[in-house]
Amino acid sequence: MSESFVYITKTSIYMPGEAVDNDTMESVLGYVGGRPSRSRKVVLRNNGIKQRYYVLDPKTGVPRFTNAQITAEAIKGLVGDDFTLDSMECLSTGTTTPDQLMPNHGVMVHGELGNKPCEVVSTAGICLAGLTALKYAYLSVLAGASRNAVAAASEAASPMLHARNFDAENEALVTQLATRPEISFDKDFLRWMLSDGAGAFLLEKQPRVGSLSLRIDWIDIFSYANELPTCMYAGAEKAEDGTLTGWKLLPTELWASRSIFAIKQDVRLLNDNVVNYTLGKPLKEVMIKHSLSAETIDWFLPHMSSEYFRKPIVECLENTDLAIPQERWFTNLSQRGNTGSASIYIMIHELLESGRLHKGQCVLCFVPESGRFSGGFMHLTAV
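Predicted structure:
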C-alpha cells in the first residue's frame, strides 16, 4: 500500500480593524470603575506584546464583527481559480469564544459564507481548539471521507474584555468597601493578554503545483486533566478545592456581580505547571514516538501567550534533549498578540509569506492550553 498524505495547500488570515498599540488599548477596552488598571503596565512589560487587533470599534467599544464573520473572512481568502466556496466538502472550525452557546460556531460560519451544503463540525476548547479542528479536517481527507477540507480557527475575545462587563462586579466591591475597588487580578490579567484574529487552511490530497505546500506528517494531542485542576475558565466559579461550579448552578444575580462569564486564569497554578505539563511531559512521548531530534527541525513555532515563558520553554527543550536554537524559532506575538486558538494558523501563514521557509524543511508546531493543561504538537514538511 502506497503512503497517503494530506497537504495544507492554501493559507489565509484575517485581522480585524487596525492594530492597537499598548498606549491606546485601555481606551478601546474601557476603564473599569473609571480608573486605569493597576496591573496593565506590569502585564505588558512581561508579555512582550506591542500591538494587537480587536473587533471593537476603537471609539465606541461596540463590536464591528462577530467571531463567525471574521472566520468567514479568513476562509474567503482561500478562494481562487482552483478553489471556490461551493467546492468545499468539509468545514472544521475551532474557537474559544463563540458568539453564542448554541448553535455551534461552525454552522454560524457556514451561514455567513452561504456556500452549498457541506459537512460542518466545530471543536470546543481554548488554545488547542484550532489544532483539534485541524486534526478533524486532516483525518477527514486522509480517510477519504472528503476530497478537501477547510480548517479554521478564530478568536473574538475583546467584547468579553470590555470594561462594561466588569462594572457590576466593581460596584459590588465598592459597596463592600474593598481596599482595592477593582476586578481581581485573575480577570484583569487576561484583559492585557488576549486579542482577536482568524486563520484558515485548505487541505487536499495533493500538494499544489507551482507553490509551496505543507505536508502534515502527524498531529498529537495530550490532556493532563487527570492530574491537575482547572486553570483557565469562563462561565463558572472556582472553589478553594479547585472544583468548578458552572453558571447553570449559580444564582443569576451573581452572573454580573461576580463577572461569572469573564475569562479567568489561576496565574499561580499556570506559572507552576504550564511548561512542564503542556511541553515537557508530552514532548518526551512525542520524541520517542516520532524519533524527533533538534537537528531535523528547521523551524519551531511555539504558541506563546507571553514572552515571559520564552526562557522556561528554552530550558524545557534543553532538559528534554530537543534544544532548538532560537534563530530557528518563528513567533509573531509582539505584532499579532495572543490570538488563542488562531495563533498557530496565523504563525504558519506568516512563515509561509515571509519567504524564509524552503522546500524540504521541517516545521514543529507546539500549542499549549492551560484550561486543564493540555499540549498539542504538529509536524509539517514543506514540499
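Summary: The radius of gyration is 21 Å.
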